[in-house]
Amino acid sequence: MSLRTAARDALANPRAKAGSVSELLPGVLLCLTITVVAAGIQSLAERSFGHPYIEALVLAILFGLGLRTVWQPSPRFQAGIAFSAKQLLEVAVALLGATVSVGALLASGPALLAGIVTVVILAIGTSYGICRALGLPARMALLVACGNAICGNSAIAAVAPVIGADSKDVAAAIAFTAVLGVLMVLGLPLFVPIAALSQDQYGVLAGLTVYAVPQVLAATVPVGVIATQVGTLVKLVRVLMLGPVVVLLSLLAPLLPRDGLSTNRRPGRVSFFKLVPWFIIGFLTLAGLCSLGLIPGAAAKSLTQVAGYLTIVAMAALGLGVDVRVLARVGARVTAAVTGSLLVLVMISLALIYALGIA
């Protein structure tokens, strides 16, 4: 899949990609097959050793990545893989709200809320500076900075029309973010033993650094329920920063340098549902009902189990949809800029955790 195709797919209407059941079935069945194998290996490890050394969720990503490296899924599989990676994972995130109390975030106090806003602002500024220092065009630098600081592909897709970004810059930013997003899901849990992080600390770290809301779920589920709840809530606050950032950029867009590497298309408008995706609204709605005690415990448990199964299926799809060889195609400057920006974001986030004394 080319970078231009990746960008077009990411910016396309999800419903248009879903297609009919017959179009979805081959790709969904492929993801389910990987899920069954991953779950079977986890179950075998649990029976043999008492606990799994690698969760089914992580195995599903690895199997998907491995298969994608040696085999390019044909077009008949693409619709089902895209549906599993996006719609099914968004449903899982929405269902997770049934076990989360909004009061848990509010109880953390204004310091954490202010800290999240500060991290986003610092991350955008430092990332933009790194990108410009490495010679990236101003608009691509903003795409990378906003994707890194807020919510990956969703932020890139929302910011691109506002600043009039060139399609090839959008393609490179989205393609690289897709790869790094998977690597973050796999690698971030290593910080738990390395930095001796508690579940609360790790949840905040994941919520502040992982690109997409669904990926936060994937990165925190293996660590624990508390990490998942804290990470998701922190990430939702971070995502809500997208609206103010897009509004600000729409005002600043005419002042951006006219780089020779960009066509500088005329800035456009972004709809409300690009700024606040439906699954975030669903998550907050269920979280509100849970906070009011309107969701029975048994129902909440069942919804959590369904969300867990859907997440594994989606992780298999995520692995199948990412070609790690894309790292070699986007160029050394983009690679250095995005990687450097991500490392800075992790350091800022860890500094916030220790500054606030989160235990």
Automatic annotation (TrEMBL):
Q: Subcellular location, in the record's words?
A: Cell membrane
Task: Name any one Pfam family assigned in the record.
Answer: Cons_hypoth698
| Keyword Cell membrane set for record | yes
Q: Does the keyword Cell membrane apply?
A: yes
**What is this entry's stated membrane topology?**
Multi-pass membrane protein
Q: Where are the transmembrane segments?
A: 21-44, 50-67, 88-106, 112-130, 142-164, 170-192, 204-227, 239-257, 278-300, 306-327, 334-356
Keywords per UniProt = Cell membrane, Membrane, Transmembrane, Transmembrane helix
Under the heading InterPro entries, the entry gives:
UPF0324_pro
Please report which protein family the annotation says this sequence is part of: Belongs to the UPF0324 family.
What protein is this chain from? Sulfate exporter family transporter
